[in-house]
Structure formats: structure tokens, C-alpha cells
Amino acid sequence: xxxxxxxxxxxxxxxxxxxxxxxxxxxxxxxxxxxxxxxxxxxxxxxxxxxxxxxxxxxxxxxxxxxxxxxxxxxxxxxxxxxxxxxxxxxxxxxxxxxxxxxxxxxxxxxxxxxxxxxxxxxxxxxxxxxxxxxxxxxxxxxxxxxxxxxxxxxxxxxxxxxxxxxxxxxxxxxxxxxxxxxxxxxxxxxxxxxxxxxxxxxxxxxxxxxxxxxxxxxxxxxxxxxxxxxxxxxxxxxxxxxxxxxxxxxxxxxxxxxxxxxxxxxxxxxxxxxxxxxxxxxxxxxxxxxxxxxxxxxxxxxxxxxxxxxxxxxxxxxxxxxxxxxxxxxxxxxxxxxxxxxxxxxxxxxxxxxxxxxxxxxxxxxxxxxxxxxxxxxxxxxxxxxxxxxxxxxxxxxxxxxxxxxxxxxxxxxxxxxxxxxxxxxxxxxxxxxxxxxxxxxxxxxxxxxxxxxxxxxxxxxxxxxxxxxxxxxxxxxxxxxxxxxxxxxxxxxxxxxxxxxxxxxxxxxxxxxxxxxxxxxxxxxxxxxxxxxxxxxxxxxxxxxxxxxxxx
Amino acid sequence: xxxxxxxxxxxxxxxxxxxxxxxxxxxxxxxxxxxxxxxxxxxxxxxxxxxxxxxxxxxxxxxxxxxxxxxxxxxxxxxxxxxxxxxxxxxxxxxxxxxxxxxxxxxxxxxxxxxxxxxxxxxxxxxxxxxxxxxxxxxxxxxxxxxxxxxxxxxxxxxxxxxxxxxxxxxxxxxxxxxxxxxxxxxxxxxxxxxxxxxxxxxxxxxxxxxxxxxxxxxxxxxxxxxxxxxxxxxxxxxxxxxxxxxxxxxxxxxxxxxxxxxxxxxxxxxxxxxxxxxxxxxxxxxxxxxxxxxxxxxxxxxxxxxxxxxxxxxxxxxxxxxxxxxxxxxxxxxxxxxxxxxxxxxxxxxxxxxxxxxxxxxxxxxxxxxxxxxxxxxxxxxxxxxxxxxxxxxxxxxxxxxxxxx
Lengths: 554, 407
Hints:
The complex is a heterodimer of chains A (554) and B (407). By secondary structure, chain A is mainly alpha-helical. Chain A has a domain at 390-553. Chain A is 47% helix and 5% strand. In chain A, the strands form four sheets. A two-stranded antiparallel ribbon of chain A has the order 1-2. In chain A, strands 3-4 form a two-stranded antiparallel sheet. A two-stranded antiparallel sheet of chain A has the order 5-6. In chain A, α3 runs antiparallel to α14 (335-347) and α4 packs parallel to α6. Chain A is globular and about 90 Å long. Chain A starts with 8 loop residues before the first helix and ends with a strand. Chain B has 407 residues and is α/β, with parallel strands linked by helices. Chain B has two domains: 12-167 and 228-405, Alkaline Phosphatase, subunit A, CATH 3.40.720; 172-226. In chain B, 31% of the residues lie in helices and 18% in strands. Chain B has a nine-stranded mixed beta sheet, sandwiched between helices. In chain B, strands 2-3 form a two-stranded antiparallel ribbon. In chain B, β14 (384-387) and β15 form a beta hairpin. In chain B, α7 crosses α8 and α8 (243-257) packs parallel to α9. Chain B is globular. Chain B starts with 16 loop residues before the first helix and ends in a 14-residue tail after the last strand. Residues 1-17 and 19-25 of chain B have low confidence and may be disordered. The chains are: A mainly alpha (554), B alpha/beta (407). At the A-B interface, α18, α20, α24, α25 and α26 of A face α5 and α6 of B.
């Protein structure tokens, strides 16, 4: 059963911006990436823009954004030598079709959607497999979200229910509003938002009313847990802590109409009887309605939030930023662009790869992060230069591993027995000396150090003394910098010429060729440390691993 | 570990600028000694030998005529004239699970957010006392690390740098085989690379990244202040060789170095059974370092700007249970404070004859937090956090500072 979405919603709500109705960009005639550049330039006016980034920078950027790792030395050399005019779009195409894309984007989307919380009966692994499979072919974002809210619990999409966790009604309400609608309605739980006039307490409770029938139930025979809905018979009641006036609402999306709760004759409420530990299935299931109405093409609160977040993931900041403050007091930097992206994304069937391709083909994405000549400062919201993004904890680990070249030492998952399980706490406290040998443990160490606490979004770059101390002094990283067969420091040790050392070093760590000044640094350092040449090469790797250029996707 | 820029950034953003400025100019420090569980008031600050609930220990005279402590508090008895004791704490929660957060957050009115613990709150409100040092250090038995959950809704960087078993954070040590000259040389390379990267870029993120390295190196240079190995053996004798003694002594070292807020935790103050033997063993372990700390801070001229608070989750029941234990008792119990605008020698609070209940006004943890903020120069009724557009009280608005113990 589905309630048709009210057609007059657009006239009632504020977040349909003028840009959308002005008409001039109503239908994109040119490819979207050209429209993106046009709108960015139009807003900035007649001012200088940064040049397009050089090939090495572009390769590193796209590799990180689509595969989650820096390129290998071979890839850099190959790309720099490629004379084809279409090599940039070819690269984007290859990565979008490649097998790394699904894994990496599953990781990114998982961090965004779960914020590193591990709730409910579906395991992290099952959830990642679901995301990976959805992302492998032609991922449809609306379909993925619909499955996460529907949470049917059967078939290949069963792990999608992970998004709803343990079916905590308030947590689900907050996550749906924050992550899927770009509205942090947490304070509207107790009263209308104090400063944002259009965020009402009824918005929070309207969403809540879709979700408050949901609970976990376990089918006895197979021992599997499902998210079922019990019978909704009346509206939810709430009152403001300020004036204590009683109010009520049925299920209602922000900006949408209220869903009427149907009243059935006694005995007519259910379409399926209770069985085997699962309760009877009501005919009226508000969560299922939410799954459809929220992801409906016409519901532009969802589409705007979707494109804003995807834009953020590749551009480093949202057109509307912070991401969950999409309201009248925090207008987007480019309202027309946001509206266009939203319309085009839904118009192309929420095709995630299509949107990524278009953004990445734009000059706006491909620009350098270095300022245009004669300009001392620009606002990041102008997109006149590219804003560097900090590497995610997982990207950082993969990059450090690729650079130092110690991948051969990593054990496959589950190879360690319970008894010799790596002691993560002891590692940080210094009571246990042994080093982690599995990728899983290494990832946990990097996530604990460089990630945000579970339940916190990872949006802005947040440096920290602990993080710097880790990259400087951690035992694992020191270990990786010792020469061992095949690793980078060992390879450098075999090179006699300083210029060859500089070339290998810069290609490997910073994914580009060194400039003259840098070759001089390398050669000066090596001659000052001639008596300890191999260790000195370790120092050089260390200094670049700890440099800002390595830490950022620039 | 150490929050991002040690609280340098973002200091004024949550507060009214005028108030922020006013606070910044003062150098005040805090040491919170947290006895996890509850110390029995009868076996410490409020012996009441004539009470029908009294235990087997004697009460002894203190440095204030007419005031008595338990004989288990022999060191603190000699410095009673330097401290305040409130014997009429009357708090609400008798449960461990909610007691610790409630007490350490000061129980502001519920506004649907996770309030910061006191150390994080002070780190936020006052910033670091020394910009090179983390504002909030927590010395505790067991594991260390950076404990961000103490920060509640504040940015994670206001969390506690925890020294597990008094040991410094593991990454503060320069790796073996890397001399300080070598470290300087490779850092010079790193800086050169960064200078090059920064040219033609104007990026606050990159600047912040550099700053985090500067601070990391400053911390590495001062790592000895986090290390209890270097403490004077005579001091160790005076503070006691048990963990709490060592950790309170280490707290003194950190306060002297300029850390804004130091919390020292001691666990297992939960004497549901065998209260008297346990108290005989445990209470002197709190008494000895507490008194030594007060004396040392006083001798160094630091007591006037350093607040010391020793407290628990709750007190213990007057009634002795069948296992010779005392259970949780929030209705009437004692805590001790000293320094930084706290009266010297104010042993206050009237209880009923047997000590079971408050006679007159009892103080809740909200009153205690107003007192703490007040002596730190922060008006608990005016200063507000700003969180997602919401102004939030830093202490329970229905409570008031405890004038009886304030200068």
C-alpha cells in the first residue's frame, strides 16, 4: 500500500530554491560536467581560476577517489607517458568499471551511513558484501536506500537492514533525518528548532511515526532476526518542553503530507498471522511507505541531500555544508548547481556512477589545488581551486602499505587463532610489543588513531597531536621503514645514483617525479649521511610519509 | 591521545567573547581525585563515634579545635585547617551505572545531549593553562590512550589524555636508534617538503596539520613530566608506594608543569562486604597522598590557584549489612575540597544525630559544580555552551554555589 505523494508540496516548502524555478537551467542541454563548470564560473564572476591539475596530481586524485589508494609507481609512469587526448576520461571509465570501485565505495558509504557503529544482527562483513554487490554493476542509489529502510530481511538485500541497527526508534529517526535528508533534527525532538524557523518538532515526530512500529523479532526455526512492524492504530503524541502544548502527528515527511492511518474492522488488520516467533503482519506498514516515499524521484529533500553528500565525497565539502544543516540559515554556496545536480541525478535514475563520472569530468573537479597566479587567497566555497581532502584512515593505511612495500608480510584474514589474537589495547598502552600481522588489525589501529569516535560523522579534516605522534613514532611504521627484501627502503638501497633514489622515492611516496630542488635535497641528505646511506634513505621516506603532501588528496 | 590542537583552537567559539576573554586571563588549575565507588563517610571525614551506626575505628582530633576525623585519616587531620569538608552532600543516584556520569557531569538539566565530564568541561571553558600541554590528563590504573568519550557533545579533542598505570602515551617516545639530532634532521626535511607544498596554497588545514607536528614535538621534548620513573624517592615515601599515592604524586608533577586539569582515579571503593577491613587498608591510601598534595601545593604557593577535590560517586549506608559491609548511600555523605578560593578550615554541614540524613540544607552535585566553576572564575549561571544552535547550561540552573566553603 502506498500513499501518493502530494503534488503541491513544492509550493509549501522553503528548500525549493529560486534557482530551480528560474527556468534558465531547467533542462541541461549540454553534458552535466559542462553545466557544472558553467554555474561555478557564473557565480565566481570574472576572476582567475586555478589551472587544471597536472597529470600526476590528477592520477593520484582519481585513484584515491575511485579506488581508495594512491597509484603504483608503474601506473604513474604509464599515465605520464600516455599521449592519448582522452586518457583522463579513459582512466575515470576504467576505475568506475574496475573491481576496486565497489569495495572502496562500500567502505566510504558504510562509514557515512553507519558512522562506524556496529549495531543489530547483521555483521559488518555481510553489510559490506551487500554494499559491494550493489555498487559493482550499475548502482542505483534510490534502490539501495529503499532496501535499507524497507529492511525486508530476505534475499540478497537482507544485510541492508543493518542501516536501521537495533531498531531504536529515536536513533533511526535521527539517522534518517540527518543522513538521508540532510536535516539534523535532534533538537526538534523536544521543541521546534530554536534558530531555524522551518524545522519543526512535528518534522521529527512525523518521521518518528513511520518508524515507531518497527522492532526486532526472531524466527525460531532458523534463528534469524527480522525488523518487523506492529500494528499502528493512532498518531504519535508529543509536546514541546517550552509550552507543554500537546500535539500529534501521523507519519509525515518534512515538507510532505501526513499519511492517514487507516482504521480496520476488528480481525481485518492483518494480512498474515503470527508464526514461528514473528508477529502478525499488519496491512498498514508505515516503514515500507517511508522507504518508497522518501526515495521518490519527486521528493527533492532526499535527492538534494544525496547529491550534496556525493559531491562532498569527491569535492571535499558539500555545496551545502555542514552536510546535515540544509536549511534557510545555511544556504548552499551554489543553489542553482545543487538543484541541477538533484534534478539530473533523479532524472538519470539515481545512477551513482553516472553522477561521479560527470563530476569528475568537470574542470571544477580537475582543477589544481594551487592558487592562480597573483591571487593570495580564495574562498573554498568558490571552487576556484580544489580543496585538498585529508586521506581517510583506510586510505592512509593502504597508501602507507603501498609506499613502504610491505604488503607481502600481511596475513590473510582469520589466519590467527583465538589464542594468539593481537592485543590492540596492549599495543596502544605499550604493554604488548608484538606487531599486528593481519590487515584487519592494522586497519583497526589506523581507524582508532585517525578516525572519529563511533557515532560521529567523519566530515572535516581533524589533525591531532596523537595522530602526528603515531605517524612519527609508531612501531609498525618504523618496522616498515627497515630494509627488508623487496620493500621500498631495500629497493632504494640498491640504487647507487642519488638521482635514481630521488626518482624512485618521489614516484613511490608522492606519485610524481621530483623537481630539481627536491633532487638536490635528496642528494644533499645522502652525502651528509654517506656513512649510513641505507638508514638515511629510511629517513627520506619517513619525512615524505609525514609531509602534508602525502597526508592530503590534493 | 591529545585532542587535536590541545584546545588551542575553538576556545572562544562556544562562549560569549567577553566572558571568554575574562576567563582566559586567569591561571587556575584543578586536581580531581576520584574514588570510584564510595568512601565511607564514617570511616573518613565524619566519624560520629556516638552514632549507632559508628564502626570500630576511633575518631581523632584535627588541627581545628573541636573537629574530628576518623583515625584512618591521620595525615589529613593535621591539615584540616587548610581544607574544607562538606559533610552534607545529598545526591540522588545510588547506582554505579548512572552514578559516575551523573556525578562527573554535574547533572545539568536533561536537554537531550551527552554533557562533558568535568575535566573536558574545564578544558573547554578555560583552555590549556600551558599551550604546549594537553589541558586534561587522566591518571588511572589499567589502560591509557586518548579517551574522547569524556568530552560528551564537545569536540572529541577535549577528551582526556589517559596515562594508563601512570605511563606516558606510547607514541611519545622517539623510536630506539633515532637520536635527537637525527630526529631534528629528518624533521627539517619534512618541514622543507611542507614549505614547498604550502607555497601557492592558502590552506588552514595544512597549517593545522603542521601545528599538530609542532605540538607533538614539544610534547616529546617534555615527555619526562608524564613519566613517574623520575619521581623523587623521598616524595614517593611521603605520598605512599601504592598506586593512588604514586598517581597523586604524578598529578603534582603535571600540575607543576602547567597541565590545567588532572584527574586521578582509584578503583574498588565499594565496600558492600567487609567494610571495616577494607577501609582500614584503603582509606589511608587516600588520606596520605591527599594531605601530602595539599601540603606540597601550599609550600609551593600553588594552593591559592589550584583546586583539589576528593570525592566519590556516593557515600556508604549508615546501616551495617549482614556481611559487615556498607552499601551505597547518596542521602548524606562527605567530600573534601581545598585551594583556589575554597575556605581554609571550613568543616561544614549538619547531619541528624546518627549521621544518616542531612539536617538543614543538603548539597547536590549541581551545587558542587557551581562551586567549582565559581572558584575557577566561571559564572555557572551566565556562561553557556553553544551546541548546534542551542545554548546549554554548564551546570544545573536550579543549583547554587556552596557559599559556606567559599572565601
